[in-house]
Amino acid sequence: MVVEETAGLCRVNVALGDRTYTVLIGRGVLRDANSWREVFPPDGRILVVTNAIVARWYLAPLLASLPETATVLVLPDGESAKTLASAERIFKALANARLTRDGTVVALGGGVIGDLAGFAAACWMRGIRFVQVPTTLLAMVDSSVGGKTGVNIAQGKNLVGAFHQPSLVLADLAALDTLPDRQLRAGLAEVIKYGAIADADFFGWLEHNATGLCAREPDALAHAVAQSCAHKARIVAHDERESGERALLNFGHTFAHALEQVTGYTTLLHGEAVAIGMLQAARLSAAQGLAEYEPAQRLEALLMAMALPTAPPPGLDPQALLDAMALDKKARGSSLRFILWDRVGAARIVDDVPRSAVLAILAP
What we know:
Blueprint: E1 3-6, E2 9-16, E3 19-26, E4 46-51, H1 52-65, E5 71-75, H2 84-96, E6 104-109, H3 111-123, E7 129-134, H4 137-143, E8 148-153, E9 156-163, E10 168-172, H5 181-198, H6 200-214, H7 218-238, H8 253-262, H9 270-287, H10 294-305, H11 318-325, E11 338-343, E12 346-350, H12 355-362
Parallel strand pairs: 3-10, 4-5, 4-6, 6-7, 7-10
Antiparallel strand pairs: 1-2, 2-3, 8-9, 11-12
């Protein structure tokens, strides 16, 4: 997958058969409407979905680039808002704004807003156009690209959802200037994932640039975002609906989603849970004889260099975590499926992992 660079603007094309959309990456791209305005039909209505925190910083610049008829819905912040009730609020806003099939939903925010707005767009009139405007690093490199949308229910994360590809992704790196340090580091966990599963050279680059990335060096962040989007675009192009290779993008996520569920989505950010989950997956790989222990040690060192957690919060019940994994979307019947690795840059799908082996990794 080629990253095209012109005058400080990176373009990554996501090709899905006869469908293609572009990820635009660069500082100030949100205000440069000339590079993306054609995505919006001239007569189509627009609903912008965001939250109060993001709206304070970025809603005005976005609206300045959209038609005056665009309407706005502001939702609560946080994973706890990623519910069917929030989706219903979007449906009502779509109805009140009279959006029909030529309308567009714009998701302005992090992964929660992107997943919610995308899910609503997938359902409204059986699917209307939507545009992702991610404002967190995690959303830029992961959730905004690839068309996965959904909401959480009490029984698990993202169990209700749809595949619905955006028409455009606008990743304005200037949005990272206002991102709290903890949120930035959480996004770096998903960046590490791409090196871990598919690109040992990129993993090595991250090891050498960990300090610069945490310090928000512009060139380092631009390279990390562009390479991550390019990797995801390549994988999604080969396997849009996760019937094979795309499952590799869930490296660490079976552990991570269980951690999030058991802690009530309040203790760990998603990227923090992924950091812990990737290390647990690496250790499980070694315990199963698939990999040496040295790659897990490298991963732990990189996570620590980026000030990411490497162990679950204390006091969690291993059996409760294992039970939460039973409803993981990668599970097959009563069998647990994990994404493990042979080494840095080479992941694989592994079925029928013994529950006793998983419990051994989960035990404090």
